[in-house]
Amino acid sequence: MVTQVVVIGAGVYGAAVAAGLTRRGARVTVVDAGAPAGGTSGATFSWTNSCGKQPRAYHELSVASMAAHRRLAAETPRGDWYHEGGNLEWADGDDARAKLRAKVEGVLAYGYEARWLDRAEVLRLEPEMAPAELPPDGIAYFPREGWVDPAGLVGHLLATALSGGAEVVRDDAVTGLEVDGAEVRAVRLASGHRLPAAAVVNCAGPQAGRVADLAGLALPMRNTRGVLVYTSPTAVAVSRVVHAPHVHLRPDGHGRLLLHSPEIDDAAQPAADGGYQVPRPAVDRVVEAGTRLYPGLRDVTVREVRVGERPIPGDGLPVLGRAGRLPNFHFAVSHSGATLSVYAGDLVAAEVLGEDRDAELAPYRFDRFDRFGRSDPSDRSDGYAG
Ligand SMILES: Cc1cc2nc3c(=O)[nH]c(=O)nc-3n(C[C@H](O)[C@H](O)[C@H](O)COP(=O)(O)OP(=O)(O)OC[C@H]3O[C@@H](n4cnc5c(N)ncnc54)[C@H](O)[C@@H]3O)c2cc1C
User: Fold this and answer.
1) Residues in the chain with pLDDT < 70?
2) Ligand 1 atom at shortest distance from the alpha carbon of 338
3) Atom of ligand 1 at shortest distance to CA of 211?
4) Counting atoms of ligand 1 from 1, which one is nearest the CA of 150?
5) 113 and 251 housed in the same domain
6) Distance separating alpha carbons of residues 262 and 241, to the nearest angstrom
7) In this structure, which of 69, 79, 82, 345 has its CB flanked by the most CB atoms within 10 Å?
8) From the CA of 205, how far away is ligand 1's center (Å)?
9) Residues near ligand 1 with C-beta < 6 Å?
10) Across-strand partners of 29?
11) Distance between CA atoms of 302 and 225, rounded to whole angstroms?
C-alpha cells in the first residue's frame, strides 16, 4: 500500500519521519516554511544523552535513541555527523555537587554507563584543559554520550527520503488543514497549493502548537530560548562534550567549537528583523569561561551567534504518535530531539503506516493533553502564515 503522507517541518524530526516513511514505501511530501535544518535543528547543542531523564520510560527511549544513532552511523560508510566521544561534567558548590551525585547514582541504577574520574584522568582525555579549573576528583564521565552535526544528519535523512521518492517543498508555510469529521484530508500552503493527504505528521518543532491548532487540537508548549556561540577554527583540541560549571562546549567539526551556557540564555532579545540579538558582553562571558578552561582559546574568534528555540511540550515529555480524536494526524515533537529523532521519528513513521508501536509510544501520546478541549479549526485555518 502506497499512502500519501505530508510531513510538516524539515528539521531532525521531519527528516527522520520522512526517511522512515519512504523506507516503508509511502509517498511523502515534506513541507517547510523555511529551509531544511533552518529551525531549532540549526541552532542546538545537539548532545546525545540520556542523562538524568525521568521517568524511566523516557530514559529508556533516550538510550534506544542513542543506539539508533550508533546503528545509523555504522551502516552509512561516509556518514560523519555522529561523534560518540563521551561527556565530562562537574559541578561547583555543595548543592550542585549533590545533584550531580544523585544524577550519576540514578543512571547507574538504570544500567547506564557512567564513572567518576579524577583530575589526572580527565587531563589524559583533555590535555589542553587548565588543571586549576578542574576539581581534584568528582568529575562524571559518560562514555557513550556524544554529539551530532544536525545539518549533516538532516541532509542524510532527507537524501534517504528523496531517494525513496519523497518531495521536499521549502519556503512555503502550512497555513491550513482541511479536517473532515475525524480525518485530515488535505494541507493548504501559503503559496495557495493544496496537498491531499492520507496522513499528516506534525514535525513543526517550536511551532508544533500552532500547527496542532490548525487541526483543532490544543497542544500546550512552553518553549525556551538558548544562545549558541560558534567559533572559527582553532588549534585547541577539544575532543568531546564538556559540561563545566559556567560553560558547556563541544567540537563542531573542522576545528571549530560550539559554546553554550544557560547563564546567558536570557540575554537573547527580539530584534527588529524578527530574529534575536545577543549583547556582546553576554557572548564574551561564555568565551571567557571557555578560555579559562582551555587557555589556548585566548585568541579564538566568534564566527556566529545563533538563538534556538527549544520545542518543549507542556509537561516536558515528547509528544509522539497519532492523536486519538484525529487518528491520521500524528505528532513528532520534543525537546532533546537531536538525541531522540532518529529512533522516535522512525517509530512514528511505522505507526503512520499501520505498524503496532503502541508499547513504545503509549507514554507520549498527545491524548494526555486532550482534557484542554477541542478548539475549532475552521476559524484558524487561514490565519497563520508560519
Ligand atoms: C539551545 C538549545 C540546545 C539544545 N541542546 C540539545 C542537546 O544538547 N541535545 C538534544 O538532543 N537536543 C537539544 N536541543 C533540542 C533539539 O535541538 C530540538 O529538540 C530539535 O532540534 C527539534 O527538531 P524539530 O525537527 O522538532 O524542530 P525544528 O528543527 O525547529 O524543525 C521544525 C521545522 O518546522 C518548520 N515549520 C514550523 N511551522 C511550519 C509551518 N506552519 N509550515 C511549514 N513548516 C513549518 C520550521 O521552519 C522548521 O524548519 C537543544 C535546543 C536548543 C534551542
Assistant:
1) 1-2, 371-386
2) 11
3) 41
4) 21
5) no
6) 15
7) 345
8) 5
9) 8-14, 31-34, 38-41, 43-47, 173-174, 203-207, 211, 226, 228, 308-311, 333-339, 386
10) 6, 167
11) 20
Tell me the best of 157, 249, 305, 310 to mutate to test the pocket of ligand 1, counting ligand atoms within 8 Å of each CB and taking the most.
Answer: 310
For 313-371, how does the pLDDT look when each residue is reduced to its tens digit (9 = 90+)? 999 999 999 999 999 999 999 999 999 999 999 999 999 999 999 999 999 999 999 86
Ligand 1 centre from 113 Cα, in Å? 27
Domain of residue 126: give its range.
87-143
Which amino acid residue places its CA nearest to atom 1 of ligand 1? 226
Residue nearest to atom 33 of ligand 1 (CA): 9
Centre of ligand 1 to C-alpha 292, Å, is 31
Q: Which of 121, 143, 165 is the last residue of a domain?
A: 143
Question: pLDDT value at position 1?
Answer: 60
**CATH code (residue 232):** 3.30.9.10
How many distinct structural domains can be found in the chain?
Answer: 3
